[in-house]
Amino acid sequence: MKKLLYLPVSLLILFRSWPAMAESQGGLKSIPELQTAIETILKETRTPGAAIAIVSRDKAVWVAGLGKADVAANKLVNADTLFRIGSTSKGFAALAALQLQEEGKLKLTDTVRQWVPDVAFVNPWETTDPVRLVHLMEHTSGFDDIHLREYALNDPAPITLKDALAYGASSRICRWLPGSRMAYCNSGPAVLAAVIEKVSAERFEDYVQEHFFNPLHMDSASYYYTPAVQQRLTKLYHSDGVTPYPYWHISYRPAGSINASARDMANYVRFYLQRGSLDGTQLVQAASIERMESTESLPAAALGRFTGYGLYNYATPEGAFVFHGHNGGVMGGLTEMAYLPDYGRGYVVMINSGSGQALNKIGKLVRQYLIRDLTPPPLPPVVPVPAGIQQHYAGYYQGISPRVQMFYALERLINIGQLVFTTNGLTITTYNLHHDQWLPVTERLFRRENQSVATLALLPDADGQILIQTSRGTYKQVSELRVWGQRFGFGVISLLMLSSPLYALVWGARKLLGKLRNGGPMSVRVMPLLSTLSLVVFLGLFFVNRDDAWTLGVCSWVTVGIMFSSIIFALAAAGSLYFVYRGRPAAMNLLAYWHSVLVTTAVAVVAIYMGYWGLIGLRLWV
Predict the structure, then answer these.
(1) Sorting pLDDT into bands at 50, 70 and 90, what band is 4?
(2) Considering the entire predicted model, what is its pTM?
(3) How far is residue 381 CA from its own chain's centroid?
(4) Which domain covers residue 529, as residue numbers?
(5) What is the C-alpha to C-alpha distance for residues 19 and 222, in angstroms, rounded to an integer?
(6) Domain co-membership, 553 together with 586
(7) Is the dihedral of CA 39, 50, 4, 336 positive or negative?
(8) Do the domain assignments include residue 356?
(9) Under 8 Å CB-to-CB from 432, ≥6 apart: which residues?
(10) Of 535, 563, 569, whose CA–CA distance to 621 is shortest?
(11) Are residues 288 and 248 in the same domain?
């Protein structure tokens, strides 16, 4: 589970900024230098503490704790301090499924229905294109990510997997053909865990304990908040580095609930480097680990070697090097686990704050340290791209694989790029603010210019749509007129609505001072203002509480405020139309009247748009 990454990452939490800190420091050549640099980052980002493990294939090179596990008690982090590893937990669900496949008890191509027909989900294509286990593991099921009410479910009992899946059935709706697009979804591991329980006749957490935690000597790792865990667990902190979060009893434990220490995680990373074994104990075959690191269910994979999200394990290129692993987060805690399988090196970083900036900087430093003395793999040669393909695929593209459907209304306006072919490749530009250069590996597969693997594909047309696919999303070609129309409309509407409260300061002051002449009906001025302000409240309540699923996923003053502010916005927009039309013959300053007309038009368009996407009367706790 990622930090309330429920709100679109690209919109509110720029989780993957990857600042080039290591280069600016000239590179770090020793563990003491690395430790000093990490401690500096912790201080600068107000992150109380961190746990680090750097390993080789054969041994743990550095396992340490830095900073404080409990600020109030002045308790220091050490190698045995437990951290919440969030979505890094997902890998164990994949490993369990792969182990059972090796034993001939299931296949990744099995359908979900054949194993757990009682687990509810909706797939309009189930007869011809059923949801398969591999779709759950590569996030290609098409399910919406879990809803806020599922995030907010925090039962210390703890809740059973069966009850958790029953509670959150409404989010499991296939929005596109399973296997056609990738969108991160936290319910997938829980559904897979239900299959594992059915096949193994064991509780999922017990299966992982027996088959992975014990043989990997992850002696303190646990899915539960036991007394032993409570004694060793770090506090998790808000951005101020002082205020702790309470413990989050995640309902979908297979997706993100593990508590583990740096010492535990050092063995886990070495297990991947040893290709499924640890110091002579083979748990899964090397081929299963290689399958974890491969993307196969997406259409892009059919075009050749496409690198992206595998089985709860994804690739992170660092220049020409390719790390594999998974990050994760809960409210107040972030983790990053990654390794270089061909070079026998890896690491884990765990911090007790939700600072993506801190994790990104530390992760960048560690990766640069690990590759400091390695010879990078050769870059693939650039191949020619036929003119016909260039002509067909050049143009504007819009994202069509949102992680969270509720926020797609805004994401679809922002997640737009222009693809332009150059003399030796292509460029993707996002609103002229960000430029990415790509070079062709084949006619349809492209890599970033400094990377060695393909992460962008030009897909064959589907249902009359021209599509491209990256390691994290699918995009369809849209007309230039539509893109510029959206840009212009979004800009004009934003300016008009912004002008309403600013102008109200002028006429409001004049009204109070008795100097407002030709004021006309005040409803013509007030209703568009009320509509604008109610939308500001609606968006503000989301933004201020964006990191707190417990507030946004239950019936509270915040969520009730979100519901009522959206309704008030729509009603005020309708009232604005009525009063502006009714006020036509009234004696009123023409500039003020036509300003109200324009603002009314703007809020009416937004209200219709929000209504179409189901954002009016939004009840997040339902």
Answers:
(1) very low
(2) 0.93
(3) 32
(4) 498-612
(5) 33
(6) yes
(7) positive
(8) yes
(9) none
(10) 563
(11) yes
